[in-house]
From TrEMBL:
UniProt-recorded name of the protein: ABC transporter
Keyword vocabulary terms for this entry: Membrane, Transmembrane, Transmembrane helix
Record PANTHER family: ABC TRANSPORTER G FAMILY MEMBER 20 ISOFORM X1, ATP-BINDING CASSETTE, SUB-FAMILY H, MEMBER 1
Transmembrane segments: 149-173
Keyword match Transmembrane: yes
Species for this entry: Medioppia subpectinata
The keyword Membrane is assigned to this record: yes
Cited InterPro entries: P-loop_NTPase
Amino acid sequence: MFHKPPLLILDEPTVGVDSVLRCRIWEYLEDMCKNHGTTVVITTHYLEEANTASNVAYIQSGSLLVQSNPRDLLTKYECRTLEEAFLQISITRKHETRVESCETPKPQAIEQTAKNSLNLCSDRKKLIDLKHIRALLWRSQIRISRNPIILVMLLLLPVIQITLFCVCTGGRLNAIPIAIHEPDFDNHLSHQFLEHIDRQMIRE
């Protein structure tokens, strides 16, 4: 750090390095703090690296669990390492969260939830607004005026699709061989069916 910044924020600076280089990095950072008065903020998953820090904060799921001096944390939770302290704090916090979720909600909280639901419904009704629709139409008009090709494609694309569909699937079917098999000779349903078909369309 050639310019000796007053505040240095590092995101996991020791990830992927060997133990010797990791030790040198921490020695250099400690020297910056002691001799140059630099405040260093570091995020790390290696909890034991924070033993020499003046202040440690445990964060889990975006929430701050605890913030204190490493020695005070070890003394308070009667642990030998910061990792053990973190595990104990996490288990305690998880148990407290379960207890809070099992508590019966108060009537005031239920009433507030109902009011919020009513406000949400009223907001949804306001979504159908003529001013909002007018603004959307005006925006579309400006977009089309800037790029007329969009309007041409919107008009021609359905016509092209219908034309291709008629060409591919339309038209009369010619020269298709048909065979009729009738095991029941008493009803002669197939002959009755053939009698109602135009003879010009069938070649026996």
